[in-house]
Amino acid sequence: MKYRKLEKWDYPEESINLIFFAQLLDELFFDFSLDTYKPSAMNSSLLCEEALGIIKEIGNGNIKKPNLQHILDELCENLSKDPVVSELLSIDLKQINSVLLNPKEPEAEKKIIVELVLRQIYLKKYKNKNEDLLKNAIYGDKNFRLIRGLTRSYATTLINLGYSSEYISEVVKKFFHYDKNRISGKEAIDDFLKIFSEKPELFTLVFKIPKSIKNYKTSYETFNIKFLDELSDLTYDLSNHKFKKNADQLYICLSEIKARDIFSAKSEAERILDILSTVFGLYHHKEQINWQPDCLIINERTKVVERSKTKINVMHKCADQKQSQAAKNANSFLSEFGLEENSFRKFTRSAELHSLALSSDSSENQILNLWIALESIIPINNNDKIANIEHIINSTIPFLNLIYYQRLVARFTSDLFNWDKRQTRKVLKNIDGDTSIIKVAKLVSLKEYELNRLELNSYFKDFHLMSDRFNYLCYIYSSPKNMLEGLDSHSKRIGWQIRRVYRARNLIVHCGITPSYIEVLIENIHDYLDTVMNRIIQLAAESKKITSIEQSFKYVFLVNANVEKNLDHKNTIFTSEMINKLYSKI
């Protein structure tokens, strides 16, 4: 979360809702935000499409029948909470639920109901109503909860309509902070939303590629791809771009690439090149067809020529250690890791698969390797009554729940210091705690720091997203009951998402289908795997509490169960001792 000055805003005190919207979007599309604060993979409309797709693949024998009910459960919950759906849907939710949630209802009946719902909330219609409600919310009274929900669903909608997260992030920063336009008031929301009302454009992309590619000229022409010796062969004005090739290279030109923005256009062009490279690799194993990632992107309608911009590999969109700390931890790991031989082999095999995902630029390869890495590190399922996917979910959730709210507080602490070190230190000065993170946890939870909370909140001023996040953490930490309810909800979402990753894996392997939201899934499964592996390292190398993979999963399960038991005591309130225990390395 980053605070950006409101120098181009004329009346910020009268545009609180719009500022919150802008700050929220900025965080949603920041590459290194926590997964919790990034766009969701699905909204209600997309869940309908997913359910119908799964019903089709069940009929084809590619997906097992039990997968469907989990999607329908998620769909029904989303339909009941989605303000966009409540405006569009004319069918009574009770009637929908009576069919979709009834295990005795045949799939054919459920399919008809989902089709009827989708007909009323299909994605473009959903987007239009989402925009209408966003305008109303921003013009209306302060209601950050409503704006947050509408903004998140809108972000998910844009991504699945084909806009890249890089483009949306760029638009948000330019429109609200860095372009020459002034933000005169709430009405700026209309101009902002118009940016995303345009139809897809056609693009031409020019890459540099080895001359040896000429051997495949006939195949490339089938895909509307041309070879060029010189850029002068193109009719576009490229004089502002120095794009020289080497003597052993030539230009390759892909035309009529349909996309929403230049980032999406490049992704689509590289997808085509990737397919061709893969096919040629079947006939010539020794040398792959490679191209330079730097390219020219030309809008065929406007004739505007742009140079490609660096896109961060989705596998790199995560919190990382500084190189010196990483080296220190690696040395400690190799010298002190205490797993027995079989478990060590299992752990290193999972690490190798993680490394393969890191080194690949293919989304399909990334998600497949990450899934196998997670599946392979989890102990064998010895219960015949529990499906393997259920076993994977049950094994993973304790690792993620143990650190969930601690991570949110840690990120909030970092955001506080990035925002204003002096004020943050002043507020935390007299709070007991070994680290700033523990001090912040006590600040948001303990009754004796109520005045400190009021003081800090008063400093946020027009940083409305920071204030909203602070109030949320204060609510969660106001009672163990609230935290336990939050963890229950988190567990449900993890279960849905792991199943979605598993279904995506099956669709890629068995049907050759890649979901439009695959990057979200990659970020999620990568985070799940890192969390599990890091905790195993901590237990085996740092605290030496376990000597096998099986012990690590049982240990984390027992610790998490104990935490939930302590949170579940009636009339319990957080104490300084409880916070210290929650943040100890258990």
Question: What would your notes on this structure say?
Answer:
Helix 13 crosses helix 22 and helix 21 packs across helix 22. Among the domains are: 197 residues, no CATH class; 107 residues, Alpha-Beta Plaits (2-Layer Sandwich). It has a 5-stranded antiparallel sheet. The protein contains 24 helices and 5 strands. It is globular and about 75 Å long. The mean pLDDT is 90. Helix content is 62%, strand content 6%. It has 586 residues and is mainly α.
User: Helix and strand string, N-terminal first?
Assistant: HHHHHHHHHHEHEEHEEHHHHHHHHHHHH
Shape: globular
Q: Which bin fits the share of residues in helices?
A: 55-70%
- Rg on CA atoms, Å: 26 Å
Number of strands: 5
- Please outline the major beta sheet: 5 strands, antiparallel
Mean pLDDT: 90
How far apart are the termini? 29 Å
Q: How many H/I helices? A: 24
Q: Strand-residue fraction?
A: 5-15%
Keywords, separated by commas or semicolons:
586 residues, Alpha-Beta Plaits, five-stranded antiparallel β-sheet, 5 strands, 6% strand
